[in-house]
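Worked example 2:
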Amino acid sequence: SGYLNFSSPYPGQVNVNKAVVLTATGGYANLSGNVKRPLHYYFQIDETPYFNSTALKESGWIKHYGLYKPILKPSTKYYWRAKLRDSNTTPIESSFSASQNFTTESPTTWYVRPKNITQYGSEDGKTFASAWNGLNNIKWGAEGVEAGDTLYICGTHILTLNKE
């Protein structure tokens, strides 16, 4: 409850994961009248503080949970804000909050080598010597390859199809 609060990322944060979840909580105090729960949250994120560029992303209304996970570019400063409304038939709606900003992490380079019986070091994909062991072992998302990253597929990878 209380006023709308941004939980993550915090204002001015740098090296934010490109798979960040924008999080807002509370907001009942931002609305006046007979407020009906649950609240709905609406996020905007843009590369300009004016929220008017072609890079603008909008979440649409998210019921109850103030969580939004946009796909973001590396090494980019983003501005974000939110507004909310209640669940009345004619919703009570707030205006947008003041904007916050953060900067995403730099792109990462990853490596995968052909499936092998022996290990490639730690197999975390971070170097050629510790490459992922085969295409099926590539990690995607927050713990691996994300938008803007480079993935080197090293050597010859052979896919065998089962005939069933």
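The CA atoms of residues 127 and 139 lie 14 Å apart. The radius of gyration is 21 Å.
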